[in-house]
Amino acid sequence: MEEPRPGILIVEADPQMSWLLETILAGSDRQVFAAGTVAEAHRLMREKPVELVVLDFSFPDDDGRDFLAALRKRAATAALPVIVLSGLVSPAAKAECYAQGADTFFEKPVAPEILKAAVSARLRRSIEQRREERRDPLTGLPNREAFREGFRRLAFLAERRRDPAAFALVDFDHLASINEAHGYEAGDAALRHAAGILEKSVRQSDFLARWDGGAFTLMLPSTSLEGARRAVSKVLGSLRKHVFRTPDGKAVHSSFSAGVVPVMPKADIEAVMAEADHYLRQAKAGSKKRPQPRYTR
Question: Are the C-beta atoms of residues 97 and 83 closer than 8 Å to each other?
Fold first, then answer.
């Protein structure tokens, strides 16, 4: 899946100040989102690719400090950069701000060039760090944690748009036999070979990741169950056309087995994975007629 531009979330109750911050921080390499309430900020955190938060503390519905505390409690946002921009300037307020996990504190008003420079530097470091953390070192694909994040976002958007979505759990066949016959370096090379072909064969809107071992996960937004089956079959056909050669020159014809299931509204990734794994095991067992997944809407 093509990575979205990184997002900056401005959490500011004053509409004029919010507009000013959006103007200062806008750029072609980023997206800027604005929330006027803490509830809206939580919603945008679920929906958007937020890489940095600019936060005030005064809101009609809640306290910004509670929002900061909630970010720090969640594993996915525990290290998210948060820059506080507030009119609360007492030493006690600043100390509390840092104690709750803010990265930087600016008093209002702040010089636009200083704020912009601070945000750009923090955003760049955050993107580099998170990209490294979410990339599988062997295949270069997104890793398990990156897929979890992407799944949550795509499933939420599919539910909101009432759009069909599907999920495939793909497992590379005969990886163990390649490792045993040719060594683990050959097995790693075979996985890189397979990953490269899979990546070229899926749509830009699809989200392919390496899960573990020889297993890959694939999220297919705007795709029916039957459409997903056809897409996975097409990818398998592409993989079979490309012969992998081991370091000693032996040709290996690659293939995979897959379990394909629909992603239902309010889908939980663990439940979807378990269902897909059920059909994957049937495929691995060589069933010629895979039963249709049964589900209720």
Answer: no
Which residues, at least 6 apart from 268, have a Cβ–Cβ distance to it below 8 Å? none
Strand spans (E) along 79-152: 82-86, 104-107
167-185 pLDDT per residue, tens: 999 999 888 888 888 888 8
Residue 214 contacts residue 169 (beta carbons within 8 Å): no
Q: What is the pTM of this model?
A: 0.62
> Is the Cβ–Cβ distance between 51 and 7 less than 8 Å?
yes
pLDDT digits (tens, 9 = 90+) for 246-287: 877 888 788 899 999 999 888 889 999 999 999 999 888 874
First to last CA, the chain: 27
For residue 294, how many C-alpha atoms fall within 13 Å in the half-sphere facing its CB?
1
